[in-house]
Structure formats: C-alpha cells, structure tokens
Amino acid sequence: MSPARTSSLVIETPEGISFTLILASPITRFLAWLIDFIAIMALDSALQNALQITGILGADFAQAAGILAYFALSTGYGIGLEWRLRGQTLGKRVLGLRVMDAQGLRLDFSQIVIRNLLRAIDLLPGFYLVGGMVSVFTKNAQRLGDLAANTIVVRNPRIEQPDLDRLLGGKFNSLLEYQHLAARLRQRATPELAGIALSALLRREEFEPHARVELFDELASCVQSVVEFPAEAVESITSEQYVRNAVEILYRRSN
Amino acid sequence: MILDLPRFLSAERRYWTELESALDRIESDPSRRPQLDEIKALHYLYQRASADLAKMATFSSEPETRRYLESLVARAYAEIHESREARRRVHVRRWFAQELPQAFRRHVRAFWLAVAITLAGCAFGALALRIDPEAKAVIMPFGGLLENPATRVAREEHAKEDRLHGVKNTFAAQLMTHNTQVAFTTLALGMTWGFGTILILFYNGVTLGAVSLDYIQAGQSNFLMGWLLPHGAAEIPAILLAGQAGFILAGALIGWGTSLPRGQRLRAVSRDVLTLIFGMCLLLVWAGIIEAFFSQYHQPVIPYTLKIAFGAVELAALTLYLSRSGTSAQ
Which of B170, B228, B177, B230 is nearest to B204 (CA)? Predict the structure, then answer.
C-alpha cells in the first residue's frame, strides 16, 4: 500500500499513448453503496412478496425460500449487475461510477466475484469502515476487495458542451479578423489554459468585481504570451472580452 | 501538428465510428470468436485512433472529441492487450470434471496449510478441554453443546417426535447461508496477509477438537461420528477450500519468490480462486441439506453404521474426485 494517493490513474499503452482514468472518491462510492442498499431492500421486499406464493407448499418451504432469496439477492446483486452492466450497479450508474481493471484491461468475471465477496471484511465493523479506511490510504483509492481483484472504481463524468452562444453573447470578435493568428492560438494554447479560461468565463459572476478584473487581466496576459494579436485588435476591448474572444476561437468549431 | 482541424476531424471520424462499432460487437457478445480479418481490422483501427489521440492530446480545442477518443482507445486497449482467454460459455460438465479439481491441485500446498492449521486447532481444543474441563463454557460455540453428551444422546435417541418437524427446510437454508458466510469471511481474510484466515481455521479446529473429545470422553463416539460425519464430510472440506482460497490470495499479496507486481500476481490467481469459491458453495449446499435432513436423525431412526458409512463414502468420493478427476486432461 502506498501512502501517495492520487485522484486519477494514468495508463500508458505500449503504443506510447496515455489515457487518464478519474478515480472515484470514498464518499461518492459510499453514496453509491447507499443507493444500492436501498435498491436491495426494495428488491428483497418485492421478492419476499412474490415468494409468498410458495406458501402453498408449506410455511417451512416459504420461509426457506425467503432466506435463500435474500442471501442470493444480497450476494448476487453486485456480481450480477457489474457483470451485465460492464462494471456498474444501479448506485454506480446514478453517480457515474464504473468498476474497471486496474491495468485498464478487460474486466474478468472472477475479478467481479472476488471484489464483491470481499465486502464481507470491507463492511466491518459497519458502514464500510474497513473498506473506507483502506481506500483512503491506498494509492488508487482501492478497498480490500479491489486490491484482491485488482480493480479500481473510476468516475465517468458526463461531459456537457458549454453553452457558448449564451456565454459569448454574439458579440463582435475582433481577433477573428486575424485568421492566421487565430489558427496559431488554436495550435499553441494548452488544454489547461483553454479549460481555465472557459471556467473563468462560466463562473465570472461568482467573483468580487476587483478579483474579476484581476483574474481576467492575468488570463489575458497568459493568452497574449501564447499569441500576440495586433494592438488595433485588442486596444478597445477589456481583458474579459479579450479572454471571451480567445475562448470563442478555441472552442467554436465553425470558426 | 494539425493544421486543419475540421478536415482532420471529418477524415478520421469514420474510422472512430468503425472502431466503436467493432468494440460494441465484441463487448455485446464476449462468447463470439472473431475472425482473423476482424482482429486485424480492430488492431489497425486501434492504432489509428491511438495516433489520432496523440495528435489531439496537445490540442486545446475539441475537448469533447479528445475525451471520446480517450475512452475509445481505452476500450480498444482493454480488448487488444488482454492476454487472458475470454470466458466463453461455461461448460458445467468440464468445469466440474476438470477445472475445479485441477485448480485444487494447482494450489494443494495452500490446502495442506489449511488442514494443518485446523488440526493444530483441534489438538489445542482437545488439550484445553482435557486440562481444564471448565474451559468448555468458553470453547463451545453454542449453548446446546454445554450439556452432558450422554444426556443429549439419551434424549435424542428416545425422542418420540421429530424436533425438526415443520422447520427442516428453514433449518437447511439457515445452515447453507450461515456456513457460506463463514466461508466467504475465511476467504476474504486472506487479504490480511492470511492472518485472519489462520485465526478462523484455528478457531474452527478448536471447536471441533473440543466437541470431539467431549463426546469421546463421555463414551459417545458412535453418536459423534454418526452425527458429524454425514454433513461434516462436505462442510469441513468446504471451509478448508475457503481457507485454501484465502491462502492463495495471501500468497499473491505477499508475493514470495516472484518479481511480478502485486496487481499481476492477484490477477494470475483470480480464476482459480473463483473456481474454488464455486466448489466450496456446492459443498456447503450439499452439507446444509444433509445436516437438516439426515445428520439430525439418530438410532433407532437411522442406524449409526449407516450414517458413518454414508459419511465415509462421501469423504472417499470427495478425496478421489479432488485428487484424480481431470488428471488425464491435464
């Protein structure tokens, strides 16, 4: 177990490509488990009602069927759903989580069974205390079941295209007058800079007025350090408008 | 360097769609064996998508496309670089006749370790009861075993009514689920570097040793054998299999004598552990049925010789099965 815990796992392929998996936090996983717990209780209630029909074979038979049904449901719920839904249970699906092989390879049925059966100790002494503690201290936020099965739980956030029309407001973009510089900006701007500029615009109303001015001044100078537009394109606009224009160049496909 | 992003996207998108369709086909039916041409095409599309991702990775535009391409490459990577054979249809007969006994034999040293720890527990339990009879109250797992064995035998042999009448199915279901939980815990505690598994096996042994000595000292050996052997011949080996699976996990976790990383060691044993888990569950279902419907009935209802012979046959069959079955296929 490594003390250096990270929130993402980068997998490098032999082809030299790397892709990043965002690890789910213990809290999100606990919430997913709570949803699953409620789902199991609801399913059990429905199943017990359905099994009342076995009462015609005797009360003893019906009670035995109830015990076995609950056991099969509580043990098989995670195994069955994670196998059929490719690493997701109901709770994980609601919260956008997925179980994956820790090396990014195909998830094997044996891994799913092992990680689910090891809940027996991850649950101890109650409310996933052991599993939660272990996942806090392991590098890839793995509980004991994940360590044994060599699996991880990743977050699959739903990525929504920002509403650029509302954000950009159909204003004139003076930078677009210089298409060659706009193309250079698209090539040279890092994904991080583009992302920060976009989030700053999306959250601009949350800042205090002076902080907002300072932030956009700084962002504008960052953009200018990437590509310098002629003075006539930028002199009559504020830093915020400058950043807005740059974001339009970076994110709008049609330009 | 991408100079013309729209053209790049329109040129490459059809290959990505093709790769996505190929992956959907593979993932929707893992039992299907793809043709060589399909595999070659998949590999080509994967490499093309990887190259596209490398081009897109430093590009700030099209974050959506980059994420999509990342997820596509990740899915293709999982299919192409997985070296374990894909689980096709489960052949129950082959699994039973070959896979389970072969998995058992591959890790037989872990099984013998489980046996040794249980026997050590038996010896300790018997010795503790012999030295200090008052320890019985502490050692016995439930109150019913605290009474004098001779009293219990006399009562049950002369019982006029079936004490399990009307609850046999429930009793069997409770036994199955409880014993399976214990077995799962024994297995799971392998992840404590085997210490938890050792404790459970030892404790089981202590109980078994103490109960056995208690009945032997009371002159009730026949009752003891007739009571324990029919279901114990399946139940005790099932717990030993759980211990074996727990020690396999512990061994992979510790990683003595191998330079493989922990993740790969655990992946390497996961299918054998799964096989042993299913074997263990089968034995516990059988043990639950036998304990509820057979073990609890004593002489004169069922003669002890018959019960002991039944248990002995079960044990011999299980030993033969685990040691010999599937050896020719191996």
Answer: B228
